[in-house]
Design brief:
five-stranded parallel β-sheet; globular; 172 residues; alpha/beta
Amino acid sequence: MTFEQQDAEATGTARAETDAATGAGAGAAPGDAMGIALVAHDGCKAEMVAWAGEHREILGRHRLYATGTTGGLVAEATELPVKRFRSGPLGGDQQVGARIAEGDVDLLVFFWDALTAQPHEPDVRALLRLAVLANVPVACNRATADLVITSPQLGGGHREHVDSRLAGRVAS
């Protein structure tokens, strides 16, 4: 078995385990459930919760991942299952980045505070770098997030051009 085949098998297993553990993707057609990561800096968490509440029905058809506090707030407000990672500054951004590299995240909704310096800026840049390399759409504000989440291409597996520098990544 090649490295790529082993990676694909491991990614599929991890995705199935996440789906089973969270109940995510229950309303989606097979193959249409996407991994959606939700990240919000402190000054943007209320906006993220409001946005998630507005798009609860759509989000409920997909696997949701989030950094610690954001995930807890979204799960509480929407009653949707969310796979929570650590707080962003404590490694959560890196955990989301790892899921992008593994092919589990198909959309990153990252409401970041453009007016406040972040102590974990290198982690934020690394997360965004991985999203670019993996050709994962990134929505950094509510207007973009609204456009992406309501797109007819959502869940259709249209992400074909993955940067070859992201070795071993399996396109979802």
